[in-house]
Amino acid sequence: MRRAFGGMLAMAVMLSGCGGSDEGTISTGGSTPAPAPTASTGCSLRERQDWAAAQIREWYLFPDTLPATLSTASYTTVDDYIDALTATARAQRKDRFFTYLTSIKEENAYYNAGSSAGFGIRFALDQSGQRLFSAESFEGAPGLAAGIDRGTEILAIGTTSATLRTVSAIVAAEGTAGLTTALGPDTAGTARVMQINDAAGTRTVTVTKTDFSLLPVSSRYGAKIIQDGGQSVGYINLRTFIKTAEPALKTAFADFRAKGVTKVIIDLRYNGGGLIETAEYLGDLLGGARSTSEVFDYVTFRTEKASNNTTRFFAPQPESIAPTRIAFIGTGGTASASELVINAFTPYLHSNAGLIGTNTYGKPVGQIALDREACDDRLRVVALATQNAARSGDYYDGLATKVEASCQASDDIGYQFGDPFESSTRQALNFLAGRSCTPITGAANARSLRTADTRRDLLMSDRPGTAQREVPGLF
Q1: Which of 154, 169, 271, 454 is deepest in the core (most CB within 10 A)?
Q2: How many whole angstroms separate alpha carbon 401 and alpha carbon 393?
Q3: 8 Å CB contact between 366 and 5
Q4: Residues 6+ apart with CB under 8 A from 39
């Protein structure tokens, strides 16, 4: 797996779990100045490699880990050369493929409107790696239209009914990478036949990938009020931190405020990250009790780039609420901007802000975006670190040992998100009600963004596109 700060050179601040996140041409996360543009010449492999290396050497958060010299001759792609440059930081778990090359056009389409091409299904494997399920299906996408929703099992995949291969056969022959191949490229018009099974029985459907705009807050279950023991509990399931999330969040919190909600569940279980700006906006909506002199986060760069450091204070909105307790649902798929929000509230709510589920991924760093427009190259470089008001930000192994309260829970795909019978939601309600639970340990499930819980792994491409970096498991 691979996996943000911007301006004149298209640098934009972003936090994301599998690789990056942010609009490339809009500066976010405060008034951080952008660097001056660099000269752009040709787009040969050598020129692109040299350009990428120059940007990394100038901006990388861990310059001491970079090799003094590294010949381009042994590397046939820009990606492989970048991986070699950052190999030491990766081995130290500081940069797990967070520095990478992507497409300007693809990123802008995703961060501005959630646009991508695919089935609109988030796939997950069981622990054996032999069974494939839909962990989530997105509104307006072909997967849901074909009847594939959370909990549906995919038994076989083919290009036609005659070429159907069982999931177990594909994995046995080619490993889990074979499933990515079997599902086809993420281009509109790619069609696959799938044999599926759910409560309606076993059947065969044909699903064709199309361009769709991912709703960051589901229109079905993304925002609601749950009645629990006479208490009104606000529930938000945020899939990704992109600009289009803000209107839906604003509407939801206006409803919470109007109904006097003071206990909330923020479900970030698969949220791989996104824009720092949107994370800070969510913090403002949860910060009705915070003053404009209280710190939400600090963003810091390496010493010689310290002039870019920023401090973001809370900015309560007309829709903001003042929660007395917050239950954050997280998993190994919860990363970066998601972790930033959770971490930000620990110094203020202490044990009244709890992590529910499993340990998180562990990404307290963010990327800047550096563009070479002539080549449609956007280089995401790990250049910044984030800290909360207590200057705590060293959670490379996840937040389980950093939060002051946590409760173990599984991700039960037999129920929809926000259903009080769903395990993580139920445990979140228990936490909010003050009932006892078993704390989360800093287990290995935070070591991979593929991990959704102890029983199921999100399916990821080796080199995911922008949408899959921010929405792990998306195809």
Answers
A1: 271
A2: 12
A3: yes
A4: none
DSSP label of 212 = E
Q: Alpha-carbon distance 451 to 60, whole Å? A: 27
Determine how many CB atoms are found less than 10 A away from the CB of residue 10.
Answer: 25
Residues composing the chain: 475
Identity of residue 29: G
Amino acid at position 105, single letter: K
**Residue 84 CB: number of other CB atoms within 10 A?**
17
Q: Locate tokens 């499930």: which residue?
A: 445
pLDDT digits (tens, 9 = 90+) for 365-408: 999 999 999 999 999 999 999 999 999 999 999 999 999 999 99
3-state secondary structure string across 303-358:
HHHHHHCEEEECCCCCCCCCCCEEEEEECCCCCCHHHHHHHHHHHHHHHHEEEEEC
> Each residue of 170-191: b (16+ CB within 10 Å) or e?
bbeeeebebbbebbbebeeebe
Cα three-residue angle 305-37-50, rounded to 5 degrees: 85
Exposed, middle or buried: residue 455 (CB in 10 Å: 0-12, 13-18, 19+)?
middle
Which among 24, 29, 30 has a CA at the least distance from the CA of 7? 24
C-alpha span between 22 and 372 (Å, rounded): 16
Q: What's the average model confidence in pLDDT over 308-322?
A: 98
* Tens digit of each residue's pLDDT (9 = 90 or more) over 139-179: 999 999 999 999 999 999 999 999 999 999 999 999 999 99
Q: What is the pTM of this model?
A: 0.89
The position carrying tokens 């807050």 is 217
